[in-house]
Amino acid sequence: MRIGYTLYVIGALLCSVGLTMIFPLMFGVYYQDESILPLLYSMGITVIAGGCLIAVFRERTKTLLNHREGMAIVALGWIGAGIAGALPFWFGGMLGFTDALFESVSGFTTTGSTVLTDIEIVPRGLLMWRSLTHWLGGMGIIVLSLAILPFLGVGGMQLYKAEVPGPVPDKLKPRIKDTAMALWKVYLLFSVLQAVLLYFGGMDVFDSICHTFGTMATGGFSTKNASVGHYDSGYLQTVIIIFMFIAGVNFSLHFRLLLGEPGAFLKDAEFRFYTVVVLVSTAVVALAVYGTEYDSFLEALRHAAFQVVSICTTTGFATADYEQWAPVTMAVLLFLTFLGGCAGSTGGGIKCMRVLLLLKQAYHEIFRLIHPHSVSYVKLGNRIVRAEVLSGVLGFFVLYIGLFVLSSTLIAAMGVDVLTAFSATAACIGNIGPGLGSVGPAENFAHLPQAAKWVLTLCMLLGRLEIYTVFILFVPEFWRK
Amino acid sequence: MRLFRKEPKAEQLKVIIIGAGEVGYHIAHRLTRENKQVVVVDQQPEALRRVAEALDVQTIRGSGSSPVVLHDAGAEDADIILAVTDSDEINIIACLFANIISPASTKLARIRNEEYTLYRDALAQDILNISMIINPEVEVVKNIDRLLSLPGAVDYSEFADGRIRMVGMRICSGPLVGVRLMNFRTVISDGDVIIAAIVRNDELIIPTGMDEIRADDVVYFVCTESSLESVRNVVAALEDPIRSALIVGGGNIGMRLATLFERKGYHTKLVDRDEERCAVLAEKLNSTIVLHGDGTDQDLLREENAGTMDAVVCLTSDEETNILCSLLAKNMGVRKTVARINKVAYQPLVRAIGIEHSVSPRLSAVNSILHYIRKGKVLSSVAIRGEEAEVMEALAEAQSDIVGRPIHKLSFPKGALVLALVRGTEVVIPSGDTVIEPQDRILILSTRQAVSDVEQALMVKLKAY
């Protein structure tokens, strides 16, 4: 573990994050609002801090990162980015440091839980920064750095593995730098497409960019208090449904689509599972709300699809206060909270891939009981899933549930009601956003105790980096020479 | 008929056979009977001794992949080189050198690995100039599938690139029983069906119109591809189609067959004795249940409800196991059993002990190689019911006796029958008035005794070659 080199790489990361603040700054300058100074200060501090780290720990030789250093860089880098991202909100004066950090981490981890009670009065530069943190965190700040920082190519696979969600990350190209570049290109392409479609649906440039960031990153920050429900347009909502769905799919499939291989989608077992789950859940929810909440079936279908896709992909946009809906819809949505998107997507949660593997493993056990002499394996597509991948998935599942149990108990111990505590924890670990109870789609997280916000902030980070990467920092063995 | 036929050049053909295994041996056997010069190359002295003692051939010891050995075998002036060892790699390399030493010769290779056969065209034309690649396993899988998917069929062959089918079916009951052949069209109205032969109590009958179909006869129908359905509808309407199958032995054939069954949606189970092989099979196959165990283990068979399966196919490399396993399965109540039996000597035994179907990849390799070598006069020949009769596919030469006259006027030998004609792309099931035209492909059924007479009749009056 070379701490110096680790800090050097983190310095470079911080500089990159600081420089991205130019983008919201441009909007601040255009709208002439109060976000200019906070953004300038934050940018200055972040870039200088990063620059200092680079200067102090500069090494002339490119060295190969080992597994541990990769994990440390990703975990500490994300914490650093979270703090840097909190500065504009803090300097803006509307949030204390805890709240600012919560908002920033919620942004980078694409959770979309907010502590802002009135979003519409926040200066536009800061709103743009809030949405931009989604977009940067969605595909991953490390993957972005891999694409743009040349020296990270050495040993970059360690970083890539630590950040990209899913049990076995796909490598699209032989070189990690090209893989990262390809992912970001696909991401950018879909984002531009969605922004244009939203713009033509009547949003202004600012709102269409912010909502695109929230959608493609499966984040969920909106610029309106009523979230997407503010726009009473079937077209806009449908566009957002489609792009949320796209963002929840493994990006290597999109990449292959762009290479002219559309058949890859149907051949992919995880994609089929994801699609079936979304369709079935939508049908259940639509039937539950048709006739009671909505008189038109199409409207019921649209709202059902929106909520289901939003929760399943872990976006967290809302067009309706689903807490008023029939209990069965809430049960469906709560379970989807745990499921999440596909591996290699921008979505959070346990991931369809892992749930699918767990289900297959469970069936496999039953099958072995019926045919004791059989030789069989858990397969995905036509390939055998290796035993260590399966046990990794099982371990992840146990840690995920363990983290959920521990955090929700902690929050309940702070006097928060059980439904709120449970759903807030689930929503934060799964990077979804709104929960149920007093953190439902129509409420926010502002009223929670300070300590609960710290716990949830940590949950968001753990959820985004898939637990192992962050957890490992707390294991003494990790720091041993 | 001429008394002194000029010796056709075909009989002086020089053939080099690389590999003296079962395939090599039987080809050598058939070729020496046709009076050809045969050289057999093999590394195993034992195998060579067996060939040398039984057959009139020259043997050379050494690896067929060695150019020196090929040279010793006289590859330079060989007309045909057959690479039929058990190793694909040796066969390919042998053809590679054979192509260098003797580019003009016809080269046939036995290649079983699917991954090589994917590049069939490249091997055949560009690189090695191999004239024909034989993959008997593919043939065997097709054959098993036909036997199983055609209920009641006990024998099945194809002619004229699959446009004509000959299928032997056991008639147990149904509308055909008691029908005289002259009246059989009242039962099967399809004009494209003809009855070629009847086997009763293991005896072959070349039928006349007065013969009657009895219960338990095996009737050989010749029909076109499309009219096969109407035969099946009449003969085997009562039998359920196959829905589940147990395959014993997970070698190449077993795996191919399982893959095919999966595609057809059968409920498939596959047993193999080797655990590592099972792991490979479990990886390659999807819905098939791969079981590790012995196909003759009754407990395993009972545990997996083998008795309720529609078919059991035994494909291990050991024929005794296959026979035993088929008998066990029959005993447990399985409707159809197929056993892989390589030793040609066992074939007549098989029916005697109650196994209905047997397949032999080696025999089918021998058949396809011979088919290829014979190309020209007799296109292919298939033995039915052991060797009692043969169905030949031949080309009607313009100068031969059979062309230009209605069939009932031909002086065709007794015990021979014209079954079908292929004219261009059209299949004709002939009546007595049909006239054979030059370049028709004709399908002739002939008893063993009449074969040579039929060959005479097919002979061109003035030898063209």
Automatic annotation (TrEMBL), chain A:
Q: Which InterPro entries match?
A: Cat_transpt, TrkH
A single GO CC term for this protein reads: plasma membrane
The compartments listed are:
Cell inner membrane
Coiled-coil annotation reads: none
Q: Name one GO molecular function term.
A: metal ion binding
Specify which residues bind K(+) according to the UniProt entry for this protein: T110, T111, G219, T314, T315, N431
Which ranges does the record mark as transmembrane? 7-30, 36-58, 70-91, 135-160, 181-200, 235-259, 271-291, 325-350, 389-413, 454-475
The domain of life for this entry's organism is Bacteria
Keywords of the record, alphabetical order, are: Cell inner membrane, Cell membrane, Ion transport, Membrane, Metal-binding, Potassium, Potassium transport, Transmembrane, Transmembrane helix, Transport
Entry membrane topology: Multi-pass membrane protein
Family, according to the entry, reads as follows: Belongs to the TrkH potassium transport family.
Q: Which NCBIfam families match?
A: 2a38
Under PANTHER family, the record lists:
TRK SYSTEM POTASSIUM UPTAKE PROTEIN TRKG-RELATED
The protein in question is named Potassium uptake protein, TrkH family
- Native organism is Oleidesulfovibrio alaskensis (strain ATCC BAA-1058 / DSM 17464 / G20) (Desulfovibrio alaskensis)
TrEMBL record, chain B:
Q: Name one Pfam family in it.
A: TrkA_C
Domain RCK N-terminal per the UniProt entry, residue ranges: 12-131, 242-359
Which keywords appear in this protein's UniProt record, sorted alphabetically? Ion transport, NAD, Potassium, Potassium transport, Transport
- Look up and give the organism this protein is from: Oleidesulfovibrio alaskensis (strain ATCC BAA-1058 / DSM 17464 / G20)
> A GO molecular function for this record?
potassium ion transmembrane transporter activity
Q: Does the keyword Transport apply?
A: yes
Q: Which InterPro entries match?
A: K_uptake_TrkA (IPR006036), NAD(P)-bd_dom_sf (IPR036291), RCK_C (IPR006037), RCK_C_sf (IPR036721), RCK_N (IPR003148), Trk_Ktr_HKT_K-transport (IPR050721)
The record, for Gene3D superfamilies, names: NAD(P)-binding Rossmann-like Domain (3.40.50.720), Regulator of K+ conductance, C-terminal domain (3.30.70.1450)
Ranges for domain RCK C-terminal come to: 154-237, 379-460
**Protein name, as recorded:** Trk system potassium uptake protein TrkA
Cite a GO CC annotation: plasma membrane
